[in-house]
Amino acid sequence: MKKSVISMAAAALILITTFAMTPQTTQAQELSIEPGATITSRFIYRGLDLGSSPQVQPSIAFNYGDFNFTLWGSHPLSLTPDGSDYKEVKFWMNYTFDLGNFTLTPQIENHFNANADLFDFDEDTTTHVFQASVRAAAKGDVAPDFLLGYAFWGADGFEPTLYLEAGVNFSVGDTGLRAFLSGQYSEEGGFVDLGYEGDFVFNQLGLSASRHLRISDSISVPMSVLVAINPKTERAFTAFSISF
Q: In a structure prediction context, what are the per-residue pLDDT tens digits for the chain, which is 244 residues long?
């Protein structure tokens, strides 16, 4: 029964993505390359605290019109890094469709533990995980968004996992805020499974706040604060990040 629910959700994800791929009016496009980096006090992902130290998260984004391809990583930021500390490398590609009052962005991504071999795709030993998702985001001063994701391939014993996240974006003065709630559903052994025993669980409830930190009259950097809890494990997280 659970597998059939996940299969139906995966089918819905494919249908939504296919619908989004309806040909659009083309315009002149140019390739742009955007390097960037974020330094965060903690790497929080789907209700899990990854790593035992602050992390630096460099990225290179290639944009061509509404198409995006990004290479991204997260690595411990310490003077004496432990070789076993969690290091992640990820790439994703997506296309954003502007549908008037909202945007729709289908995406495919792969990520893996960088302590493991890059070209290890043996199901017994690999750390690679492939995911597909689609995000709908409204426009306006109060803008809800919704993400439907499906992790469909991973290591031996990995169970396909459905991920849902709903949020609402708004602002107070110069501070942008996003309240969000997420959950996942899979058989036991799903992606980011903290002993969930094959149940549907809410794995994050949180609030993020962001604004520009002014360094000088001509320089400012984006900063953000995350406060979240995992309702299932009853763990609380906070993180502070700045981006360049």
A: 455 545 555 555 555 554 544 444 445 579 999 999 999 999 999 999 987 789 999 999 999 999 999 999 999 987 655 666 788 999 999 999 999 999 999 999 999 988 889 899 998 889 999 999 999 999 999 999 999 999 999 987 899 999 999 999 999 999 999 999 999 999 999 999 999 988 899 999 999 999 988 877 777 889 999 999 999 999 999 999 999 8
Of 81, 42, 44, 1, the C-alpha closest to 230 is 44
Write the CA distances from 152 to 80, 96, 149, 161, integer angstroms: 36, 22, 10, 7
- Helix and strand numbers (H, E) in the chain are 1, 15
SS3 content of the chain, % helix, strand, coil (to 5): 10, 55, 35
Q: What value does the CA radius of gyration of the chain take, rounded to a whole number of Å?
A: 19
Dist CA 111 CA 133 (whole Å): 14
DSSP collapsed to 3 states, 28-75: CCCEEEEEEEEEECCEEECCEEECCCCEEEEEEEEEECCEEEEEEEEE
